[in-house]
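Input (DNA repair protein RecO):
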Amino acid sequence: MSNEKTEGLIIRLADFSESSKVITWFTRDFGKITSLAKGAKRLKSSFEAAIDLLATCRIVFIRKSSGGLDLLTEAQLVNRFRPYPGNLSNLYVGYYIAELLDALTEEYDPHPELFDAACVVLQHLQEHDDYQKSLIIFELTILEEIGQLPQFQYCTGCSQELGQLESYLYDANNGGLYCQHCEQQRHGKVRVSRGTITILQKLTVENTLLSQRLNLSLQQQREIRQLLSTTMSHILGRRPKMAPYLQL
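Output:
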């Protein structure tokens, strides 16, 4: 057993006993971990100010070598998630982010860039009453980090250039788009315009800088949302639990 220090985001909470909780964290240095917080439910617990879904904390935990639960010993609150006042959608987006981090990452598989991306989008949800652009950036980041980012540059059927079409057929099963020749032999349900694909190509290369000045039309938002929602459902093997609340 060893003491470890890191910064973590609470992505799931569960009762363990009358006084304790099991907390799933997505941490910057260790990836996803699951810890036991003894006495966390007591009124005068040393954790009482920190334990809240989507809270970011500096934590100290004892890492168990046998595969059991890690033991949380310290948790200092850095930021408590509070969505933009009066915007319930931003709260649901926060829950959706927690769901993706829990479902799509593995124990002790660190992704510091993904941790930073999660903190950025949660901060945006606290300060602004819109979420579309920041959520798109996060979803593209998590797909890239887990090796599931769709191919937006070349045809997924023949690996050749896509060509200049007005729109492209997207197939989540094969993770990409089809050129005019290959799409005649495929059956996809999502069609995305050339302008939207151009934006996605740029976002996957320079997403942070571009997102700050990116303006998406309603059509582009709908197309990207349909593509990403279809992709997430395919990877998860089910529709995300938060999808009905966000109309994903």
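The mean pLDDT is 91.
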